[in-house]
Give the backbone structure.
Amino acid sequence: MAHNPPQDQGVTTETPFARALLIGLSLIFLLLVLVMPLLAVFTEALRKGFPAFLESLSDPETFSAIRLTLLVAGISVPLNLVFGVVAAWTIAKFEFKGKAVLSTLIDLPFSVSPVISGLVFVLLFGAQGLLGPWLQSNGIQIIFAVPGLVLATVFITFPFVARELIPLMQEQGNADEEAALSLGASGWQTFWHVTLPNIKWGLLYGVLLCNARAMGEFGAVSVVSGHIRGQTNTMPLQVEILYNEYNFVAAFAVATLLALLALVTLVLKALLEHHFSAELSASRRH
Amino acid sequence: MKTKLMRHVLAAGLLIGAALGVQAPAARADQALLNVSYDPTREFYKDFNAAFAEKWKADSGETVTIETSHGGSGKQARAVIDGLQADVVTLALEADVDAIAKKTGKIPADWKKRLENNSAPYTSTIVFLVRKGNPKGIKDWGDLVKDDVQVITPNPKTSGGARWNFLAAWAWARQANGGDDEKAKAYVTELYKHVPVLDTGARGSTTTFVQREQGDVLLAWENEAYLALDELGAGNFEIVTPSVSIKAEPSVALVDGNVDAKGTRKVAEAYLQYLYSDVGQKLAAKHYYRPAKPDLADKADLARFADVKLVTIEDFGGWAKAQPEFFADGGVFDKIYQPAQ
Amino acid sequence: MTRSASSGWQFRQPSVLPGFRWALGYTLVWLTLIVLIPLAGLFFKSAALGWHDFWSLAFERRTLNALWISFGCAFIAALANVVFGTLLAWVLVRYQFPGKKIVDSMVDLPFALPTAVAGIALTTLYAPKGWIGAPLALLGLKVAFTPVGIVIALIFVGLPFVVRTVQPVMEEIDREVEEAAATLGANRLQTVFRVLLPGLAPAVLTGFSLAFARGVGEYGSVIFIAGNLPFKSEIAPLLIVIKLEEFNYPAATAIAVVMLLISFSMLFVINLIQAWSRRRYGYGA
């Protein structure tokens, strides 16, 4: 932390040997569990060289998978962004009965198995589902089409933004908003000019993670997709299809796109955090 | 910030509109067919769809695009039951088409009689894929339960091909033991003790065998085994044909409920009929399926198929009997894995 | 949970901030539409089963076994994540070393990498012929296609939950506490284990529960590496998929409901712990 520079105090730190040991241990753990899988993805994708890698990405079905993934994320993420901000405002800024229940409910999709997340929409909108007959007689297709993919994705990524914002807004407290209000600002003005600037980095971070998960979701989307080639296959599903066609280079090539997305997310996140921590400590100091 | 957020919200609205718009053409598309199929037919239908589109264009002047969806046969059937708008289904098992017929009523119960050869335009069988030089000396089903042999096959609960594998093994053991079903059951039970990985689909098993180098023998569709040789290196594997196997009949059917709603009956019917034409049969044989009408296919392609004694599903009393007896909840397959009480 | 009911029952404490009704309304409507109604549909479907059928489907031996494997592996993986996640958080908060920024960002990788890709990559690595699997095989250890493989996949999936809940709390720890402990004659190990770690317990517990809850439901990454043998390495989500593919919706929903109920109660406990730790320590995850 900026206000607590590391000091070389014998009593509050370990011997250099212990320190090296702990750092070494955690690095080995990371290597085995995180770094090697990532390396494996890239190695497999480039197994037949860079031209083969590029060529395998130019397949029209892969293209439409990328387009669909962007479309689905492009709808789901803004929806969750708005929800996350409003939910965080409700939970962080007010004290009311049942708050613990409400915040548990918001977290619920985190712990619902992706398979179940897909299943619930099939049970609801499928031809055998509760609303299925009505939808069918009105010619509305929800599952096995874009709306179903969006619903499953919104469900899966539901808590991301809210969860990021709630602790942050709780930590910041209501003082800034109360001051603005007492100076005569309207509720909206307070929100736009006081709250939003305070939370913008946390918000962006939440949106980034939400987006990464939205683009990468597999289990839930797989249940509602129908796997129509070039139509309802998102990138993760396309990875599976290519893999099942023994087209390993192409499968891992699409996977690298998703991994790159993950890496870009992480880099952006690191940059944000840099900003974010500076701003946090600044806001704490005043 | 305000305008930015508003723009986000607007964009979201537009995208939703766009998404709904995307649906419209699919519903309106007069000449788009959706063929919902199972895993190993990808390569065949890729060629066949192109051939049919060309023929349809020549015959009627209309352009038809054929969309395909592949996956485990049971999963695909479930998708159609849940409302996937398939015009035709080309699945691994009669039982899966029956399930659609029964649960949705979109396919008439007598669908099997509507097309030649029990609605199976091509058939296949189950063979062994072993590693180069056949180091474990696997020649027939009996060798699979030798102490040091590991067998790769998918889960019959999720894979249509795996059910054919299971029944082929059973058929051999029954024959080897003079028709004793108890002994056949003992053999199959022993066989699954030699299976270290149960993948959910045929393609998953092939990958486990070929890429992960697990196991000594892969039980596979004949066409999958040949495809694996072509795609994954002929030098590394060999095909072994057992003394007895089963005639696997992947079924095709028109989904009446869907084609009538979409107005695609004519082209969908023509599509299925074309499977039985000389072009369809030639392509099937080229992709290592045994054509229903061998005289229409190329002799050279047919010569690749080994002679093998084939039992059929009728020897098990048909799918209507075999499916519940062997593969339903609490059926024979479940009992195999039930630990001793 | 103790509620302060000083002035009788009151839905909410007064606040000068506006928008409560509007925001709560929006939150509730959206929550209901996206999460509650779909989940309620699930319960509705399984209620149609009747109690007896539900009971026999949900507590069939094979189902119990799959639940046991899912929860057991998730538990072990979450424990491993508690150990290594806390260690990682400690290293990231307390020490300076080259590449620390990179390591810090790497921790979020499992949040962002699609699970199917992770599953395929982990299987490639840990299969008996893989980069890591081969040396382990020489030692007679088999990872992929055994429950150990499931644990590895779940460690991957759950790691960031522990690190990200423990890390911020660790940053807030006041060094004076440690100095005080040292002045009072505690050696470093005693300080760490008797003073520092107990203070972290609520955050660690939260991280544990999140990783655990996520691991129980995980499907995409596990399915490739598990081996999927009934009674040995068959996880509950796979069993749901199997039941679905047998067109056995009642059984699928019954298992789903059992998993949901367990997950929901766990999440509720987490949130209680969070609320409690916030009240007690003034900071929380």
